[in-house]
Amino acid sequence: MKRTKVCLALILASIVLLSARPGPARPDRPAGRGGALALVRIPKTATLPLGTLVRLGIDVRQDLATCLLALADRDDMTMLRRSGIRFSVLDRNAPRPEYLLVETGLPGALDSLRAAGRAVAVEAGTAVFWTERGSAAAEVPAGLPSKVLPARSVLPYLRSRPAAAAAAPVAAVQDPLVESIVSLVSSSSLAADVQTLQDLQTRYASTTNCESAGDSLYASFSALGLDDVHFESFTFSSGYTSRNVVAEKTGESFPGDFYIICAHYDSTSPSATRQTLAPGADDNASGAAAVLGAARALAGYPLDYSVRFVAFSAEEWGLWGSRAYADAARARGERILGVINLDMIAYANAVPEDLQIIVNDSSAWLADLFAIAGAQYGVVTTARMIDPSIIYSDHSPFWDNGYPALLAIEDYPLNNPYYHQTTDTLDRLNLDFFTAAARGATGLLAGLAQPIRDGYPAAPARLTAAWETYRSLFNTLAAVNLEWDAQADAAGYNVYRTTTSHLGYVKVNDEPIVGTSFSDTGAVSGGEYYYVLTAVGPTGLESNRSRENAWRSAAAVPAAAASSGRTIRPAGPRGIR
Q1: How is the chain split into domains, by residue range?
Q2: Looking at the predicted structure, is the pLDDT value of residue 28 above 60?
Q3: Which residues does 304 contact at the CB level (< 8 Å), separation at least 6?
């Protein structure tokens, strides 16, 4: 009878878990049985239950700092009310062909937007904009950054904000191999690459000059002997086409896992000149040059992880290139582990200048690692901002698709007086700051991709974990049991654990482990843990880390299982993340 109760409890738990999973994405969602759709604003509060939104299947299309934007029919709104979740209706005639999020921080911006169409402020500095007919993008007043509302729900990728924490302390020890890679990023090469792009006069997407810029970048990547260099074409706005430039260096240990460093290469200036003169040295020849610099530095080194160097087009039109790329990557199920987006990293309004690193909640670890890499290899000071409302650069479509991404930018809000002007030229840039920022980004990328060292064991390729709890009348024992595949060049293994993804790993075994399993009894039920594994060679040399394994243990054990005295493995993320 006790065994029957345990099985029944596990079956019921499985049903609950399956029912809580988000349903399939609903692109361009039509009106359903609940009547016409509306665009609604759901305020973010400390008690907003994301789990309830998932259970109700709410079609959340945008995560902002103070609110969520969603498409909801009558039934959705009824369920929200019954669940005690507040909302307000922004547009009762959704979905429109095109909703835009528009930055309205400048004086008079919201009024000019309302003169062009329908605009509703959703939080300070951000409005939703649409028109009754035609293209909303074509009606946005010049100079106002915009982004199209995502075509699918972003709810599966949201997480509750963790307790506030300071940025990770800067580690004191440099990696000599990474330092040698970073030293290959030179001021002279960065300046020359900016000049090459600037000399095209304009790189405004839709012009032949912009296509020539793509050709130039393609040639530069191709000269490095990378594993793959290609164009990815896309259509934007009213039928224009342009191309992203993608170059790849394939990892040797984890070829299907990717880190991306990217920047947009198109430019703009006032409407009267952008077709013929938009030099865009800081915005964003600086970012494109830094991506090229990282490719040159890493091209000759074998890496554990695959790295992609991507130059996006049509960013200035509303992130079209990066949106096409990130949406396609998610559709293919690609494992993109982190994205470094560089946008305006060369103008210093003060010396010393720091670099703003902007992330959402799920990407904060990237900002902390950039702070470490910037201090070690830049040398550049960084300032972390966690703000999901800063969405007007090429990191944002990656957020929409659940990929960790950061934006590195010289200042936010911007204070470059040459921004989007015909005077944004190389002579206005600070090459020392530019070089420091580019080296910091390259150091971060190299550390993430893990250069392979001659004579060292290979990084372990597989690590799995399972939480186990045993309860009796007198005691409760808990452990995370780790297992891995044996490796021919390893004499032993070390296990490292942290409670913050990618940061602060601490070795949990005293001596190298002989065998392919380890039980970590230091974990606490209800905790969140991240593990990596290294191999130790016969002479004591230690390999690079395995992929990180994320484990979130169950907060409690079902009473039926506890009373039986049996060992159980509660449902939770297993395997490699």
Answers
A1: 2-157, 176-449, 463-564
A2: no
A3: 251, 252, 253, 254, 449, 450, 451, 452, 459, 544
